[in-house]
Amino acid sequence: MLGRRRVLAHATTLCIAGLATSVIPQTLLAAAVGDDTSTATKKRIFITGSTTGLGQMAARLLVEQGHRVVLHGRSPASAQKALQEIPGAEAALHGDFESLEQIKDLARQANAIGPFDSILHNAGLGDDETSRVLTNDGLPRLFSINVLAPYVLTALIQKPQRLIYMTSGMQQSADGKTALDDPLWAKRSWSGSGAYSETKLLLSMLAFTVARSWSTVRSNTVEPGWVPTRMGGPSASDDLNQGHLTQAWLAVSDQPAALVSGRNFYHMNRKRSNPDAGDESMQNRLIALCTQLSGTPFPG
């Protein structure tokens, strides 16, 4: 037990010192994630998009640590499959993020079995959309899944203590004004990578709006890196084994470094976000847009 404590303390020191994660062994990173929570303080976490990839990996880690985890799949069948693959999970909800009706129903499901200590907004679509595919609601699928769904769930689910939004390093290159002037790509020639980058910037704006507006909620973003998941593809160069650790740590850890709000993280360290994500006037434009498109106001 003493040796375990030493490993945890060493990992915490490395994180606080801000050293690059490439010099931190995977075992130390894993030891830093959530292991400081006692049995009495185990958390209840809802993770969207937890049937595969990083969402499933984070869910499995948190279940193994003794936390109560609720999964999410796109359909009842995928939700049931997620439960079979992580049998220690508490439950699995379902909802297709291409449908506003189903997104709102997912919020109702979550509230029916809530509340949660933490919600991890992990579900998302990648940058390989070759055309502007519209949902039945008339919205670009990429925008509906990556921006509007997390907005609606944030607005409708009872406030947790912590919110974590999975963004991307690609948001760093997006321009907030351009993204808000034409968020649905109705005026521009489609670019899958450009649209994806903008959705991740808008998602960061949402996270930092929450951090600014809700003093009782810790809201942060995580860049997992380019990892070889189904979304990232086999040529992704970052370490898959590190891709899920930071969000799991933020969801449950009582370490001071995790008890912050309005911050962006990459591999257990703070990373500067796109400055537009913290621009209050742009945040207000985003909230107005999402309210209009979803019919769901942002609660104060």
UniProtKB/TrEMBL annotation:
InterPro entries per record: NAD(P)-bd_dom_sf, SDR_fam
Statement: the UniProt record of this protein carries the keyword Hydrolase: no
Record keywords, A-Z: Oxidoreductase, Signal
SUPFAM superfamilies for this protein: NAD(P)-binding Rossmann-fold domains (SSF51735)
GO MF assignments: oxidoreductase activity
Domain of life: Bacteria
Signal peptide start-end: 1-30
Pfam family, one: adh_short
Keyword match Transport: no
Family from the record: Belongs to the short-chain dehydrogenases/reductases (SDR) family.
PANTHER family: CHAIN DEHYDROGENASE, PUTATIVE (AFU_ORTHOLOGUE AFUA_4G00440)-RELATED, RETINOL DEHYDROGENASE
Protein name, per record: SDR family NAD(P)-dependent oxidoreductase
Source organism: Pseudomonas gingeri
Phylogenetic placement of the source organism: Bacteria, Pseudomonadati, Pseudomonadota, Gammaproteobacteria, Pseudomonadales
